[in-house]
Amino acid sequence: MRLKTLPSEFQKALPILSKIKESGYDAYFVGGSVRDAILERPIHDVDIASSAYPEEIKKIFSRTVDVGIEHGTVLVLEEDEVYEITTFRTEEAYVDYRRPSQVHFVRSLKEDLKRRDFTVNAFALNNDSEVIDLFGGLQDLEKKTLRAVGDAKERFNEDALRIMRGLRFVSSLGFSIEEKTFSAMMANANLLEKISVERIFIELDKLLMAPFWRKGLEQLLSSDVYHFLPELKNSKESLQLMLDELTPSFQFETSEQAWANLVMCLQVKSIKSFLKKWKTSNEFQKSVENLLAVYQIRLERDISRQDVYRFGKSIINQVESLREAKGLSFNYDKVSELDGQLSIHDKREIVVNGSKLMTLYQLKPGPKLGKLLSDIERQIVAGHLDNTEKAILSFVERRLASE
Ligand code: ATP
Ligand code: MG
């Protein structure tokens, strides 16, 4: 099969293929971008695979960066773009179920495509826009089927992360999983306990953020794979709530929103320890906590101007959209209105700072000054005090005089 129109990202990268070929080696576009090009979906990261060894690639191009030479990957910088060029390789048995113990560079495209996870991810595209399909991937694309390359049991046993990747592709492509592939996922799911949590997080997160997330989540549930993910063992009913509570067309807008909803459905006692198990960043944890705090506030009362100041418009709107998806009352206009009333969005915007007050009024650092500053901030946010030097200093003088 030949692509009718070659996406511009590939066109731009054609000279790279030509250069490698002129030096006597093979080179192809490979990976998800070929799949997406066939599906006429937008493509990202153009990956190139070549029979040239890393050292040979480095001789062909003048600007290269070593990023993972032992795995065969060299970055090539051409025309303001960065391309990942990876030598055709095979992978040896995965001793610890995490990473291949050794990769072997090979000169054969077929060997390289064989190691790839799913037939729809195992295409190569040559410089004539011809798709090389050695494992029936085109037929699987047609049937919207996700099928492991080769013996599914072996493939998931080699690398259990592929199980999560599979579920994530269900979610991004809306495909169904072929029967043998599905049962092999189930049979090897326990091996996920050996995979790094960070990598599993990335896949579950992508699953939740993708257009067919409901389908992905349903498959996660019906495969029983969730039992082997951090903190999700025996959580079928809670996870099912994610599907039942939200209106079918709902798409999560941010990862924080998705994970906050997950935490809520699970009725997690400590968000902190839950997200620690998932090894997320402190910043991510904080946003999830804030989202849940706002969600709680909204169960009790309306949003105030102070809330908008404290949590920010974005977090609050994400709560409003969750409420909308759950059939609860929501009011984006109110959030915008309150946000518009704020004369500051951050205390650093206050025109008089602590050191200025210390100099002007011979104050010392400590609780008294801290209280004064936070009172100024609160009064400005409430709209009772203008954020001007004159107004703030007269507020401070009145305060000091009354002590
Ligand atoms: P996306 O569109 O999300 O980037 P992708 O298919 O490009 O999806 P990547 O993680 O970018 O996925 O990997 C690029 C390619 O490398 C895949 O298409 C697949 O051929 C191969 N690959 C990646 N991870 C694995 C794995 N764990 N096992 C086997 N092959 C893999
Ligand atoms: Mg990719």
TrEMBL record:
Residue intervals passing through the bilayer: none
BP GO terms, sorted: RNA repair; tRNA 3'-terminal CCA addition
Binding sites annotated in the UniProt record for Mg(2+): 45, 47
Matching CDD domains: NT_ClassII-CCAase
Domain tRNA nucleotidyltransferase/poly(A) polymerase RNA and SrmB- binding: 174-234
Annotated InterPro entries: Bact_CCA-adding_enz_type3_sf (IPR050264), CCA-adding_enz_C (IPR032810), CCA-adding_enz_firmicutes (IPR023068), NT_sf (IPR043519), PolA_pol_head_dom (IPR002646), PolyA_RNA-bd (IPR032828)
Catalysis: reaction(s): a tRNA with a 3' CCA end + 2 CTP + ATP = a tRNA with a 3' CCACCA end + 3 diphosphate; a tRNA precursor + 2 CTP + ATP = a tRNA with a 3' CCA end + 3 diphosphate
Protein's UniProt name: CCA-adding enzyme
Organism: Streptococcus zalophi
Gene of this entry: cca
